[in-house]
Amino acid sequence: MRKLIWQFTFHHPKEVVWPTVWLFLSQVASMFPAVLAYMAIYILGAAFLPPFELDLSLLIELAAVGLGYVLVQYLVELLSYYQTYVRAYRDTADKRIAYIQKLRRQPLGFFFSRESGELTSSFAGDFANVEYTLCYWLPYPLGVGLLLVISCIWICAYDWRMGIAIFGMLPICSLLMLRIARVKEKHSRQVMEAKTKAATQLNEYLHGMKDLKAYHRTGSGFAALKEAFWILRKESLKDEAVAGSLSTLCSALVKFIVPVTAAWGFYLLLGGSLTILDFAGFLVLATKLTEPVLMVVTSISALRGMAPSGERLDQVMSAEEQPGAETVEKGDSYSFEKVVFHYERGKEIIRDVSFETPSGSFTALVGPSGSGKSTLIRLMARFWDYQSGSVRMNERELKSILPESLLSQISMVMQKAYLFRGTIRENLCFGDSGITEERMLNACQKARCHEFIAALPEGYDTVVGEGGATLSGGERQRISLARAFLKDVPILLLDEPTASLDADNEAMVQLALDEIARERTVVMIAHRLKTVRGAEQILVLEDGQIIQKGTHEELKRQPGLYARLWALQSEAGSHTFKQEKWR
C-alpha cells in the first residue's frame, strides 16, 4: 500500500491525508441513520415492556436530532466531495503538467528507447487511473477501513458474540481479496501492454498512410493494427472474466454477513442470552456495514489493478534528468576534444572527434549518409550527452550547462521543418507574446516567406494542418527560417535545410540563409557541396570520424573522399536521363 501511495501521489504521500480524513467523517455521518434506527427500536421496544409506556418526548428529540443530522451530513458530504474529488482533479492536473515538464527535461534518447504509443497511452490512460485512484480507490480503503476497525471494536466491546457474527467473514474475504488483487494486477499489466502496442500500431498506420496508399498497401498495413486490437480485446475480456468472477464471489461472501448475523442472533435470542431489541439493532448495523466492507474489498482489488499505471508513471518521474546548472549569457563557439558517443547498447557513432567552431565562423559537415553528421549537430544542442571526451561552449563544459540555457543560445533549422496545427502567426511566434507585428513581418521578409503568406486567404492567420501539411516543403522551410530570425541567437545549426527543395525554393532558402548567417556562428550539414563552398572550414566525416578538414579549394585539390564526392556531384549535375522506346 505504501508503494502505491508513493507512486500515485508522485512522491507526496501527504496528499491522501485530508481526503482520507474527510471520507472517514463522511462515512461516520452515513452510519448515523443506523444509530438513530437502533435508538428508535429501543424507544419503541420500551413501550412493550413494563410499565408499557411510550415516551413521546424521546421520539420527538430523536426526530429533531434526525433533522439536524440531515444538515450536518450535507455539510460533511460537501466538504468531503471537495477534499476528495475536486482536490483529486486539481492535483491530477498539476501532475499532468509536472509529467510534461519532466519529459521536456529528458534527452532524446529517452524517447527513442520507448515505443511511440507508450507515452501517449500513459498520458491518456494512466492519468485517468491516477485521477480515479486519488479521489476514490486510495481514500476509501484508508478512511472506510478506519471506520470498520472502530466499529468492530465498539460492537465487540458491547457483545463479542455478535461482533464475531458480523465481522467473522472478513478473514475469508481478505484471503480471497488478496487472490483477486494478484490476478487483477497481472491481467491489468497485460492489458496495459496490449493498449501500448495498439496505440503504437495506430500511430504508425496513421503516420504512414501516405506511403501505404502510394504502394497500395492500406489493407496489408492494417493487418498489424487489426492484430493489435484483437490482442487488446482478448486481454481485456480475460481480465474481466477472471477478475470479475472472483470479485462477484467476494461480493456474495460480503453480503452473506446479514444472513449469518440474523441466524446467529436468532440462535442467541432463542437461548435467552440476547434481547429482541439488541437483536434488531445488530441486524440494522450489519445491514449498514455491508456496503463499507464491500467498498474496502473492491478498492484494494482495484488498487492492485491500477498498480501498473502507477509504476509506469513513476518510471518517468524517477528518470534521471540531464545534469547541468550553469547558465550562459552568450555562447557563440564550440570546442570538441576526443569526443566519443554511442546510442544505448550500440556501436560508437562518433569516435575520437576533435574540432573547433570559432565565434562568427561558418563550418560545414559533409560525408556519406550514416557518417555521424546529424549526431554531431544533436550533440551540440545536447539532445544527447556524449560518453567521453569534452564538448565546450565558450570554454564551459556542455554537461555543466543547464539545457534550457544552452538551447536559448541556439537556433536549429532541420531538413524537414515541422509546423504545429494552428495559424502561421502562432507557428512563427511560438508562444512568445513579446514579438511585435513589425518584428514578425521583418523576419518573414528576410526569410523570403512574406509574399506567399500575404497571398493566402487569411494571411498570417491562415490555419495550417498538423506538420504543416497544407504548405509545400519550401514554404515550411522558409517559415522555419523566419522562426530562426525571430529567435535571434548567436549560434545557428542547419541540418541539410535545402535537401528536398526544388531549384526555385532552394534559391530562396539559400538567400535567406545568407541573410541569417551574418554575424552568427553557423554549423551546417550539406550533401550538396556547392552550398558550402564559402565555408571557412569543411569537416569531412566517415564512419564517425573526421578524415579531412579544410576549405573547399584545399579539399578539392587533395586526393580523398571530398574530391571524389565533388567529382561525382559535378558529373551528376551534367547528367541527362535517357529513355529508350521499343515498338
TrEMBL record:
Keywords: ATP-binding, Cell membrane, Membrane, Nucleotide-binding, Transmembrane, Transmembrane helix, Transport. Residues 20-305 form the ABC transmembrane type-1 domain. Its main location: membrane. It is a multi-pass membrane protein. It comes from the Bacteria. GO terms for cellular component: plasma membrane. CDD domains: ABC_6TM_exporters. Residues 334-568 form the ABC transporter domain. Pfam families: ABC_membrane (PF00664), ABC_tran (PF00005). It is found in: Cell membrane. Signal peptide: none annotated. The chain crosses the membrane at residues 21-44, 56-76, 137-156, 162-181, 264-285. GO terms for molecular function: ABC-type transporter activity; ATP binding; ATP hydrolysis activity; ATPase-coupled lipid transmembrane transporter activity. PANTHER family: ABC TRANSPORTER, ATP-BINDING TRANSMEMBRANE PROTEIN (PTHR24221:SF397), ATP-BINDING CASSETTE SUB-FAMILY B (PTHR24221). This is ABC transporter ATP-binding protein.
